[in-house]
Amino acid sequence: MDLKTVPASREPGWYLKLMAPNVKGSSYAWLDPSRLYCHSQALLDCVEDLVQRFRDDAIDLVVGIDAMGFILGAAIAVTLRKGFVTIRKAGHLCVETRTQTYRDYTDCEKVMETRTDAISPGVRVLLVDQWVETGGTMQGAIQLVERQGGVVAGIAAICMEDSDGGSWLKSRYKWSHCVPPQLMPQFNAHWLDSFQAFPPSLPSQEQPQGHPSHVF
């Protein structure tokens, strides 16, 4: 699907076909979700799908996780008419911050931070990231919010995989993502049928056979 076409009938998650496969090898994410942001209707429908479950909920702030969560988080905040707060990788904010260690998808320990004057006790937060694979980054963000007395009212991402970490999050928090149930096996396997529409470029674009995953 090109970046100008809008299907006459937009089935649930139609815009997921816009996402591009990895052509740079195993040190990169297995796909590029940001290609759908280039398509105005796709971005609009993606955001609407993510906010649908939270339309009637008491939410005070939307919090986006560094870095791609900033795109969806800001769009969701505008849609819900709420304020927007960033969780950054440590060392980027020039104000007083609170930090939290976490393990990302590579199992490396890292540090995230957010400003101390935005999330106060009782503030209800919707946490947004682009993707959840292992769930380590999202769990770190939850801990950071809750340590400040904030309440996690929900979590949202384009896809929350059925990994151990993703399943743990789904069982404990209200959540939304954009993937229809019938497509989840493809997302869990890190190979989408829609990739066949892209011209092959490198061996990494061939359907994987048990290779290590590298994503978000």
From TrEMBL:
GO BP of this protein: purine ribonucleoside salvage
Gene3D superfamilies for this protein: 3.40.50.2020
Single GO cellular component term: cytoplasm
Record-stated family: Belongs to the purine/pyrimidine phosphoribosyltransferase family.
Annotated Phosphoribosyltransferase domain residues: 42-180
Subunit structure: Homodimer.
Top enzyme category: transferase
InterPro entries: Adenine_PRTase, PRTase-like, PRTase_dom
GO molecular function: adenine phosphoribosyltransferase activity
Keywords: Cytoplasm, Glycosyltransferase, Membrane, Purine salvage, Transferase, Transmembrane, Transmembrane helix
Superkingdom as given in the UniProt entry: Eukaryota
Catalytic activity: AMP + diphosphate = 5-phospho-alpha-D-ribose 1-diphosphate + adenine
Organism: Crotalus adamanteus (Eastern diamondback rattlesnake)
Pathways involved: Purine metabolism; AMP biosynthesis via salvage pathway; AMP from adenine: step 1/1
Protein name, per record: adenine phosphoribosyltransferase
Protein localization: Cytoplasm
